[in-house]
């Protein structure tokens, strides 16, 4: 396999605050390593406050106090040169952003300027990267919209005139117009209705296959992961607890948390009783010792209370951080 | 059998804009439904955003008056509820559970105070010990206890626990009807199943009827007896929940069902099938 586009190793990013003499540390991302290959859709799943958003903020180098990166590195490989995104100048970062590394966010209104027509947002984001005179630039944008089956008329609309689904499509067009190698998608369809969601996911998939970009796709909706992603990482309480091919994880999850998550998914046409998980996700300012899942885990033993399980490869391409993984189920 | 709730050809029109540029938006358009007393059931209302499901819920809760049509609870028209005493008597019987428990509770106020105030005002419980017992009883019903909740603030609980407290609060006055507006859409996946199971249990054990509003067809299928599918303020299809969802008749219901992503990896691999 060729070199991965993104390599994250041993990443720790904590929120550190001290107010009124009390200092607090929230270990939102704790020792995460992963890599994403070219042309791959990598799904990131986890509940709220599991650290998903902090992880992608760190990957995008959108770090603001109190968030700090304590250890580890995030290395992108665009072309043949590796870049450590935390060790380059602001200027170099500005050149990479949007051209090589772009974002699709949950709230399209946060991206589109509400008081200006959509075309201005395209100018703001993409004009300097495409580096063509204005009329040519607009033609590039129009062609791109057409390729995504959007009427070029949307350029003349104000964001509020578009429906939520249409706005999200416009932000996808905006994120892909520079043909970036890597796209970060943070819950891009969570706010949409199911009917609209399906269309938007199809659009992301289509443009991704066409450009050959890699996507890290963050959502808590497991059904979206099942239908869209190639590989899947499961986060729990700031740690990556399982990672593997999406099909393998859905067929035979190895970490007890993942196993529960998948067993409890509601399926249309299924009325068999579902079990909820007792307890609540831990407070990351004061996580439990050892494995962070042990207070809720049905398979926990003494070692789980003392030591944090390391991420280990249990079968080819399938890793989990658990001392007592669920049994392997051959295909 | 007498009716618990009758919603008769109800519409709600909102006016937006000023005197000259006024626009009229019909949020709910001629909706009728009925729940029988003595036969508790979970009636699910599904639809996309803007389909009028929340407006319908607010009308049933008496928070918004209908523009036309009538809503009767136990034979009494909601429009005739006047004065705080009549209003309290109604609220005692019909209780809400909202979507986001972090917004439903004041972050600066201790959770037990909500429970005690509800016991005192809505359920008419007197005496400190009796009030505590009422709160504890309701919390036990949802799998918590007063010892766990006492003196704590909303931010100290997880979303799932807080939603349980919200449901416990609604149960204190022993209502005949709960109106739950998207009660699980803000709850994490690992806790969602237990809230949905709780609703099912309440119908069986306590005989509470529940109007469950959601956009999630999978939990609707799991939990409901009857279903109402709404679009643009109108009911497009209704009936026995599993019959409707197994074989939807209206084109919109069919579209809705076909848009639900199944949490299974397609056999051909992870490629998205549009």
From TrEMBL, chain A:
Query: What are the BP-aspect GO terms?
Result: peptide transport
Region described as Disordered: spans on this chain: 272-292, 308-331
UniProt keyword annotations, A-Z: ATP-binding, Nucleotide-binding, Transport
**Predominant place of localization:** membrane
How does the protein's chain sit in the membrane according to the entry? Peripheral membrane protein
Q: What would be one Pfam family of this protein?
A: oligo_HPY
PROSITE patterns linked: ABC_TRANSPORTER_1, ABC_TRANSPORTER_2
For this record, an example GO cellular component is: plasma membrane
**NCBIfam families, from UniProt?**
oligo_HPY (TIGR01727)
Assigned protein family: Belongs to the ABC transporter superfamily.
How is this protein named in the record?
A: Peptide ABC transporter ATP-binding protein
Species name: Reyranella soli
UniProtKB/TrEMBL annotation, chain B:
For the ABC transporter domain, which residue ranges apply? Answer: 5-257
Query: Which parts form a coiled-coil structure per UniProt?
Result: none
InterPro entries xref list:
AAA+_ATPase (IPR003593), ABC_transporter-like_ATP-bd (IPR003439), ABC_transporter-like_CS (IPR017871), P-loop_NTPase (IPR027417)
Arranged from A to Z, the UniProt key words for this protein are: ATP-binding, Nucleotide-binding
Gene3D superfamilies recorded for this chain?
Answer: P-loop containing nucleotide triphosphate hydrolases (3.40.50.300)
Q: Does the keyword Nucleotide-binding apply?
A: yes
An example molecular function term from Gene Ontology annotations: ATP hydrolysis activity
Record-stated family: Belongs to the ABC transporter superfamily.
* Annotated protein name in UniProt: ABC transporter ATP-binding protein
Q: Which organism is it from?
A: Reyranella soli
